[in-house]
Amino acid sequence: MAYGTKVLDHYENPRNVGSFDKSDPGVGTGMVGAPACGDVMKLQIRVNEQGVIEEARFKTYGCGSAIASSSLLTEWVKGKTLDEAGQIKNTEIAEELALPPVKIHCSVLAEDAIKAAIADYRKKTGKSDSADAA
Amino acid sequence: MRKPIYLDYSATTPVDPRVAETMCRYLTLEGEFGNPASRSHAFGWQAEKAVEEARAQVAALIHADPKEIVWTSGATESDNLALKGAAHFYQNKGRHIVTVKTEHKAILDTTRQLEREGFSVTYLDPEPDGLLDLAKLEAALRPDTILVSVMHVNNEIGVIQDLAAISRIVHPRGILLHSDAAQSAGKIPIDVAALGVDLLSLSGHKVYGPKGIGALYVRRKPRVRLEAQMHGGGHERGLRSGTLATHQIVGMGEAFRLAREEMESEGARIRGLRDRLLEGLSDIEEVYVNGDLEQRIPGNLNVSFNFVEGESLIMALKEIAVSSGSACTSASLEPSYVLRALGRNDELAHSSIRFTLGRFTTAQDVEDTIRLLHEKISRLRELSPLWEMYKEGIDLKSVQWAAH
């Protein structure tokens, strides 16, 4: 299959690969997907006291489009509030990377990953509603 | 751009230059362009002579009589003709067929069609090494079984089924044995009498011949009957109508002649390269060979690199042309059905790469491949959350995954 130039760029030079300490109270971790389905994404965010994502890291097991979707997401969420980051839609990721229809699920997985990371952070800090960024 | 290293010889092979040169002599006005079916002039006679010589060359490789060879467009058509042709002819005797889950789609999709027509088909599971348990085969046979189809060599994992032993089980029961030999012809010796096959499918382009040509061996003693699937001018003794493609046929004939001459020395050389490739990968952690390593053609190595997804690995290996057992590259997101049938877990099935070496593979190709694999596997594992968990000592089976 021929890949788009943006997918190739993120695949060749993935941004923000790595891991934060999961037990750090300022870190939210989202792990989505399953090995059986051929893709697993781990996305972590480090959030400051103002509820702004300062840094993001990812590791992905999956095809090039899955790696590119998660790499792109780490760039997009940096500097965003949790609410803003939670608004990112898979269609925006798919559009930016020009994913073909069979790879749309990779962008869905990326959206699930940021939502899971945000939920994990909120659970840790005990702020279940979205008013924390105020 | 430099061309990638070609390690996908089971997908197709380049036409041997000697074959291409032969084919060129059967196309133009200066060459033998006649219709082999033309009986009224020398153009036809010459073309017919070339076709019959090629038929003898193909027959010789499998120790058959030339009269037992029927030209087709390729192994897929041969499989269709063998299965549908035998099923339709013998349906009054019985309507049950036995085959294996790891067969090529040319078999599995054809048996699905026969099921739609009212035939009953048993799909056997292979053992974890890819080979068939003959006791299970025997247990699947019924009084109304008319045909058993087992491929000689599997296209993904390269394992060789024991056709001679299978024929000893099916023949006393009056059941026909068909085998798809697209991946074995020219790689290992084939003697249709010794193997006891009644029908054998062959392909030109897997043996350094052209695409678009194949053959079906149809046993004459005792005679195997088929109902034609292609009707027309009654070519190939009524079994397959259609003007014979002289240039394709002489190409396949020359390719099979070369295979017969060179198979032994070529096989030894390719086996050496394949073994070197495997040895070169042995210092990478969590690498698993898929399929039996002994009962296997020389040029095939199918391995799973645990915790690395196959499609991303193929993307990383853009300097090497290989194929992945993971079918994510096609529209479906299923891992290899062949590896699943062997009982490989999903991760390993998703992480497999098939390397197939051939006539033009060099020692340098293999060394470059080994070097690139070390580089790319370690890069992708740095990216893999599964590798990270494995290194932390987490049992991946104990994790509750959110399947999607």
Largest beta sheet of chain B, briefly? Answer: 7 strands, mixed
Name the poorly predicted regions of chain A: none
Shape of chain A: globular
Helix count of chain A? 5
How many distinct helices of chain B?
Answer: 13
Instruction: State the secondary-structure class of chain A.
Output: alpha+beta
| Cα-atom radius of gyration of chain B | 22 Å
Neighbour order of strands in the largest sheet of chain B: 2-8-7-6-5-3-4
Distance between the termini of chain B: 39 Å
What is the first-to-last residue Cα distance of chain A? 45 Å
Q: How much helix is in the residues of chain A? A: 40-55%
Number of strands of chain B: 13
Query: Based on the structure, what is the oligomeric state of the protein chains?
Result: heterodimer
**Order of SSEs of chain A, N→C?**
HEEEHHHH
Indicate the proportion of strand residues of chain A.
15-25%
Beta-strand share of residues of chain B: 5-15%
Major beta sheet summary of chain A: 3 strands, antiparallel
Question: How do the helices and strands line up, and which of them pair or pack?
Answer:
The complex is a heterodimer of chains A (134) and B (404).
Chain A (H helix, E strand, L loop, with lengths): L4 H8 L14 E8 L4 E9 L5 E9 L2 H14 L4 H5 L3 H8 L6 H22 L9
Antiparallel strand pairs in A: 1-2, 2-3
Helix pairs in contact in A: 1-2, 2-5, 4-5
Chain B lengths: L4 E2 L10 H8 L17 H20 L7 E4 L2 H15 L6 E5 L4 H12 L3 E5 L9 H7 L4 E5 L13 H8 L5 E5 L11 H4 L3 E5 L10 E5 L27 H36 L5 E3 L10 E6 L4 H7 L3 E2 L1 E2 L12 H5 L4 H5 L1 E5 L6 H21 L1 H7 L13
Parallel strand pairs in B: 1-11, 3-4, 3-5, 5-6, 6-7
Antiparallel strand pairs in B: 2-8, 7-8, 9-10, 10-13, 12-13
Helix pairs in contact in B: 1-8, 2-8, 3-4, 8-12
Could you explain how this protein is built, in words?
The complex is a heterodimer of chains A (134) and B (404). With 134 residues, chain A is of the alpha+beta class. Chain A has helices at residues 5-12, 64-77, 82-86, 90-97, 104-125; strands spanning 27-34, 39-47, 53-61. Chain A has a 3-stranded antiparallel beta sheet with strand order 1-2-3. Chain B is an alpha/beta fold. Chain B contains 13 helices and 13 strands. The longest helix of chain B has 36 residues, at 246-281. The chains are: A alpha+beta (134), B alpha/beta (404). Chain A binds chain B through residues 1, 3, 11, 14, 17, 19, 31-42, 59-64, 66-67, 102, 105, 108-109, 112, and chain B through 307-309, 311-312, 315, 326, 328-329, 331, 333, 335, 346-347, 350, 382-388, 396, 401-404.
